[in-house]
């Protein structure tokens, strides 16, 4: 995700890269995301209920449908990653785009060292301004009674599931989508101005790690989802008039009357996301084996073309630096959000107001969100407990994009602007390694999106550029599809530099 505080960067980059527009960013710079203290709740959906959800049949052990989602160089990973969760998910959208009938089965393997007596799932729709009702839940075809608390679902496993064993979780659910989702987590879950943004719409298995289950309600300043790599076979049934934009690769499509049915193979990935509008138009281009698709609204062809160019160039430059982009497709889609943009696997949703054709911030946002394909999706991290590992690092690689594309002047403008972010901090000395909810006021944005990038710059300075570049490329490879953390980052960096970085981490990172 990229916050609006960063908009001054666009102005500076603009002045060195192109065009010579004069833009007043006054409204953008100092406007924090506003949220009501109490969710207003969605207005009632008005249309008839959607048809029932039905699953697409397949074999749990057969990962071959996902080959289409990956470039050739990454397809061997499908023979690896033993025991990652496999979702067979069905989402049926109502005519009013405010209701979803959902059904999922998850082939869940206990990959931990202990027997598990329950599986925790996040119910994000009710944290994002909508609602989710849970219907029948079964474990290996046996009906069970889950515990449903706000945003969370605990499914009992009786007897406890031993390490290495698997179960199939069957969950029926109905989702109500808010019309005013912009007040929650930046509007990533809502139907606004004819655009549906369906983020985290299904019950999602949470991460179990040394802390146990990560089942705390996420702080709404940060990204809500922390998840393991999984496979998602997703069937979307929707009104035929909609253009659907989804994570993953479409592998089946059919039309039945006024309804369409599409099947997406998405994975390995950390999430499934869907956007839809009857008004989207598409332009695309290829970068190597990757098809980059840019969707845009009527009258915004120039913005759509720019988005396509920035995304394609980001894929190209980051692939060269951090290892090849894994998927055969990357989508860019405009949504109504109070953020600049939001990252999802194989896709980024961008603030629709930036498609004017003369918004230089579009390039910053898209470079940032594409950077997350490496540092959030490929290498995961706890986005709530250690947000600097995805957000600060992605700010750093955004400046690398400007350096690689525009040379020194582009990089300097980028860094000048991250400095101005840092300058907003109430406590500029605050370490970058805090959790989202440990920062107060503006400091989450100022420290994580400003100061944090300078830590990676200091690390580069300390290690030397060539060693640092090799280290960061190795970090993306060594922790691909896994979870990185501060200890892993430090250990790998020290291996590369053959030096002790404890002092540097104490100076910048540790609380
Ligand atoms: Zn971000």
Structure characterization notes:
This protein is α+β, with helices and mostly antiparallel strands and 511 residues long. The protein contains ten helices and 23 strands. Helices cover 26% and strands 28% of the residues. It has an eight-stranded mixed beta sheet with strand order 5-4-8-2-1-14-17-16, with no helix packed on it. Strands 19-20-21-23-22 form a five-stranded mixed beta sheet, with helices on one face. A four-stranded antiparallel beta sheet has the order 6-7-3-11, with no helix packed on it. Residues 5-42 have low confidence and may be disordered. Zinc ion is lined by residues 1-2, 343, 368, 372, 391, 394.
Q: Indicate the CATH class of the domain at 64-280.
A: Mainly Beta
CATH topology of the domain at 64-280: Immunoglobulin-like
Going by helix content, strand content and strand pairing, the class is alpha+beta
Number of strands: 23
**How many helices in DSSP terms?**
10
Amount of beta strand: 25-35%
| Average residue pLDDT | 91
The CATH architecture designation of the domain at 64-280 is Sandwich
Q: Shape from CA axes?
A: globular
Q: Write out the CATH superfamily name of the domain at 64-280.
A: tricorn interacting facor f3 domain
Give unreliable regions as ranges: 5-42
